[in-house]
Amino acid sequence: MHIVVCVKQVPDSAQIRVHPVTNTIMRQGVPTIINPYDLFALEEALRLRDKFGGEVTVLTMGPPMAEDSLRKAMTFGADRAVLLTDRFFAGSDTLATSFALAEALKKIGTDFGEPSIVFTGKQTIDGDTAQVGPGIAKRLKLNQLTYVAKISDLDPDRETITVERRAEGGIQVLETRLPVLVTMLEGSNEIRRGSLEDALRAAKADVVKWSAADAGIEDLTKCGLRGSPTIVKKIFSPDPRSEKAHPIDTTDLSMDDIAQALMDELFQRQPELEGEFLRFAATQFGQEVGHG
Amino acid sequence: MAEAPKAKPAAGRAGTKKELPDHFKAYKHVWVAIECEHGAVHPVSFELLCEGRKLADKRGVELAGVVMGGSEDAIAEAVAQTFEYGADVVYTVVDPVLTHYRNEPYTKAMTDLVNTYQPEILLLGATNLGRDLAGSVATTLLTGLTADCTELAIDDEGSLAATRPTFGGSLLCTIFTLNYRPQMATVRPRVMSMPERQEGKRGKVISHPLGMGEDDVVTKVLQFVADRETDKAQLPYADIVVAGGLGLRSAENFQLVKNLAAVLGAEYGGSRPLVQKGWISADRQIGQTGKTIRPKLYIAAGISGAIQHRVGVEGADLIVAINTDANAPIMDFANLAIIADAVQVLPALTEAFRKHLSVNRMAG
Ligand SMILES: Cc1cc2nc3c(=O)[nH]c(=O)nc-3n(C[C@H](O)[C@H](O)[C@H](O)COP(=O)(O)OP(=O)(O)OC[C@H]3O[C@@H](n4cnc5c(N)ncnc54)[C@H](O)[C@@H]3O)c2cc1C
């Protein structure tokens, strides 16, 4: 079975700083990581490969340095890595990204075998749109399974897959036919520690590098900025609130007095809160609140 | 079924200037996808109607809701509510195939409606259902989609200006879909406020066939396991929320947050590191990558107030910060602060409320 995992290299946004005066992003020196949500997809793919045999290919679209993420994915055990990189892809929004990735996936299918499952993470931490996965599914006519908490059954012979999907207010148990696109929910598994062999292999492996032309993309108007219907017109910092928090005076007060002071202040600012608390307390009659 | 006209995307460069191709000029009106799984409408749909109303009024067009479901009975209440929360028109697609949400038939229903009736703006909730559907619909229609917006407006040229957090929430950006239609956007629950309900308000209902049978749908729903009421964290819609952060120092101390929440009838939650440490479950994370809340009262104990946390709580009426650091970022957006050790303040506060509430209940 061939499984492809789409990953994205993202800046470790915990470390992004915004220039206080010019309001621009200071990217220099910000380390990059594999989008954390993608690791749940990668681990799930590796588990399926370990169980059913076959290969896991990781695919990313990005600048040349995104190769680092692919090598990192190989240290966890991915068998093959494909980097889709071309200046024509710069400025892609979700529609243009799903187009380019879908084209690369077709080429991967031709060169290395049709994938039964294409995985993506639930969303990325920098774009955070959760739309690229569904976009790929639609373009390649794959059955779409998003927010998958668990793959409960996979039958490569019957070409069926059964999953538990996180829906609003419950879990949907869905069965569909391969090939599928799956986006994994966070927390559904934990990425393994790569082995020493994998680390050595990753360091030496050849990453497959494709330009738009290599991937068979002829219509460049569907790529990058030109292929993106959305346009970012303005980037700005959120307004600071003019007023700082009002500190409750705690000098020389015991903890009990501080608590009392906060409660008084709350009820003074928002009198209906007291009624709300009392109504709740009444429903707890005979339980612990009544015996305070 | 009538074959819907196929919308062609604008040729050539998308460009940053507005040059709407002729075949999109007829696109008019603001639509909201009404999410009604298992009978009840997700409140995010009403929040979108509130926002959609403003956009439609600004544009001088109609506001419509789209309701899809398995039978007329199943959607009757949702249709009524869609009018009562502000829609002028409701489009319905009713077919047993639509009983449970599935991507294929819902995408078909929505894209057929769009191609037939041609809205200029289409809003969906950024829920698991809405995000699953929005990406497929936008890709099928080859139009622009802006996800997780925090603000929607109409600019001087009449285009939708969709603002959303970017770069991990540290900045905001405003995004346009100038030359494609419809302009699509998703908004997370609780980011927008609820509209007033106009009891008894009704309007025009337009039904459209699905044109797809069960045999055409590959994916089958084998089972739906509803969450147990007690397990469900109802954070987004809770009136009172108490939360803890790393300042609590240990999982044991997090119990102090739960104790206070229990006395106040509040939901409890926490910052992201607590989820990563396994102190709380993922559905209790508050913030940009967790839940957005809009309570009357939010008490944050030992939370620094990082921007990713802040964007999830700014809709609260009253924010209380309990933090040892008077300069923590949370002081920039909290209303009240206690500069002290949360591990000591929380039990004292719990006790003060417990006493006050039992005394007053006895008296009352
Ligand atoms: C892409 C991305 C998405 C993110 N999404 C989210 C999100 O959705 N939600 C979220 O919360 N975070 C999110 N984060 C993480 C966020 O950036 C912060 O790291 C996190 O919110 C900090 O958690 P904290 O406030 O609990 O911990 P800290 O920042 O470590 O703050 C602890 C606070 O406790 C105070 N303190 C210490 N001791 C005490 C004491 N005894 N009593 C009282 N106060 C004390 C300290 O002064 C400090 O202010 C995200 C980060 C990224 C990069």
TrEMBL record, chain A:
Sequence ranges assigned to domain Electron transfer flavoprotein alpha/beta-subunit N-terminal in this UniProt record: 22-219
Gene3D superfamilies referenced in this protein's UniProt entry, alphabetically: HUPs
PROSITE patterns: ETF_BETA
Keywords in alphabetical order: Electron transport, Transport
GO function term, MF aspect, one: electron transfer activity
Keyword Transmembrane: no
Superkingdom of the organism of origin: Bacteria
InterPro entries: ET-Flavoprotein_bsu_CS, ETF_a/b_N, ETF_b, ETF_beta_N, Rossmann-like_a/b/a_fold
Pfam families in the cross-refs: ETF
Keyword Mitochondrion: no
Role noted for this protein: May play a role in a redox process involved in nitrogen fixation.
Family that this chain belongs to: Belongs to the ETF beta-subunit/FixA family.
Subunit description: FixA and FixB form a heterodimer.
Protein name stated in the entry: Protein FixA
From TrEMBL, chain B:
Binding of FAD, residues: 271-272, 285-289, 302-309, 323
UniProt cofactor note: Binds 1 FAD per dimer.
Alphabetically ordered keywords of this record: Electron transport, FAD, Flavoprotein, Transport
Lineage: superkingdom: Bacteria
Cofactor: FAD
Cited SMART domains: ETF (SM00893)
GO molecular function: electron transfer activity; flavin adenine dinucleotide binding
Chain ranges of the Electron transfer flavoprotein alpha/beta-subunit N-terminal domain: 30-221
Pfam family membership, one: ETF_alpha
Signal sequence coordinates: none
Annotated family: Belongs to the ETF alpha-subunit/FixB family.
PANTHER family reported in the protein's UniProt record: ELECTRON TRANSFER FLAVOPROTEIN ALPHA, ELECTRON TRANSFER FLAVOPROTEIN SUBUNIT ALPHA, MITOCHONDRIAL
Name recorded for this polypeptide: Electron transfer flavoprotein alpha subunit
Species per Swiss-Prot/TrEMBL record: Roseibium marinum
